[in-house]
Amino acid sequence: MLRTLAPSRPIAPALAWLALGLLIFGACLVGIFARPIGFLSAFWPANALLLGLLVRYPHLARPPAWAAAAVGYVAADLVTGSAWGMALWLNAANLLGATAGWLVLRGLDERIRRLQRTVSALYLLLAALVASTVGALAGCGAAPVYFNAPWTDLLSLWFSTELMNYMLIVPVVLAAPRADDPPQATQGGLQGMSLLWRAAPISSLLLAEGIRTVIGGPGMLAFVVPGLLWCALSYSAFTASLLSLVVCLWTMAGVATGVLNFTPAHAGDVFSLRVGVTLLALGPLAVACASAARAEALRRLDHAVRHDDLTGVLARRALLKQGARLLASHQHESAGAAVLMLDVDHFKQVNDQHGHGAGDQLLIGIAQAMARELRPQDLLGRLGGEEFAAVLPEVSPAEAHAMAERLRSAVEQQPFATAPGGQGPTQRATVSIGLVHSATMGGNADMDTLLLAADAALYRAKAEGRNRVALA
Ligand SMILES: Nc1nc2c(ncn2[C@@H]2O[C@H](COP(=O)(O)OP(=O)(O)OP(=O)(O)O)[C@@H](O)[C@H]2O)c(=O)[nH]1
């Protein structure tokens, strides 16, 4: 069935930029207030959020977005008591880092940016490395000026913090569900399984968390890997990256607060821990991207198998199968269902006069014209050649007749293009329709019986002069 998606109305850019500025302001406050947990703002979500949002919504990536983000950054520092000079320097470095990451990702194919390609995880790692390096290099000079510390300390701290935040947060932003996602875009083959089985991957993760809390030590970092991989194979890329974010942040917070029994001895251990945690998330992310790529390929394949490649309506087998299912599910409805067979009149002449290309355009145009007249619950398919069929559930015989007439008249009244893209001279066409209602066949006739009856009625419609509806 042809369906047109109503495009979601985009938010006015000015509002979106304002929201971005507020979001960055809030994210900076979260980072600033998270500092007491340890490791000097190990959780600094603002830069990763900015990078993720600019990549996800390319139409926002204009100068006002940077201006709004800059105001958000500086305002957060100023309201929490930082000096102007330090706020300007550090936040210029934040902006530079996020911009460098955005430059790496912005030109990539949309499916790579949506984490639907196997290489997506590697591009993300590259962008995170570039963004953290640029940010760290730009910011580290502030260490001797404002913190009385060597610039190398801030360089390693900044780089490792940023790498972790970019690798954990950007995937969540990029893979978050969108209004235009096709149904069943989530992968994992969990559809139709019991709730218990669906919850098994996340339960294994919780179990691993419990075990590593008891055992502790440096090896505890990797205890969660099997659970994360299982989640990546089972859930959507969004859910998997969200779980990685939670697990890795919990690891850092657990180490900082002493809940996890591993105490870094010196600054080098902290650097190593952060980079290790980041790379821990890379494996499940790569698996989630590969899994999403496979799910997308399967969805496209399934769509190609079930739809006619010329007109986009259901292919014969899919129509017969879905039609049979629809009829069975509506067998006990009081109104009943109708089956229509529709055949383009004198279609051979179109091919002979204008060529097969024009004939193809006519078939596409007629399919679209008829689909527009049908309800969302109706099915429309191409049986082959210039012959279509429709299944209309829950209609009375009178309503079915009226709908068949509407279809006939819609085709008759519309001029159709002879060349792709509405080009070339227009052509006119008509269809003959055979209609059968389940009530006239005893109420519980199957798809084959109804099609046969509709076909006989169609034959009559042709014999009686075409461009008409005949009832079985
Ligand atoms: N362009 C195009 N032509 C097709 C396609 N499939 C079948 N045809 C042509 O459709 C024509 C069908 O011709 P006929 O069965 O004689 O029917 P008709 O000319 O529509 O005449 P009536 O049905 O009796 O009104 C044939 O010439 C086929 O070659 C297709 O996918 N594209």
TrEMBL record:
PROSITE patterns: GGDEF, PROKAR_LIPOPROTEIN
Sorted UniProt keywords: Membrane, Transmembrane, Transmembrane helix
Membrane-spanning residues: 12-33, 39-57, 89-108, 120-145, 214-233, 240-259, 271-293
Biological-process GO terms, alphabetical: cell adhesion involved in single-species biofilm formation; negative regulation of bacterial-type flagellum-dependent cell motility
A GO CC term assigned to this protein in UniProt: plasma membrane
Protein name per UniProt: diguanylate cyclase
PANTHER family per record: DIGUANYLATE CYCLASE DGCM-RELATED, REGULATORY COMPONENTS OF SENSORY TRANSDUCTION SYSTEM
Enzyme Commission numbers on file: 2.7.7.65
MF-aspect GO terms: diguanylate cyclase activity
SMART domains assigned: GGDEF
Signal peptide: none
Domain GGDEF intervals: 335-472
InterPro entries the record matches: Diguanylate_Cyclase, GGDEF_dom, Nucleotide_cyclase, Rev_trsase/Diguanyl_cyclase
A Pfam match: GGDEF
Catalytic activity entry: 2 GTP = 3',3'-c-di-GMP + 2 diphosphate
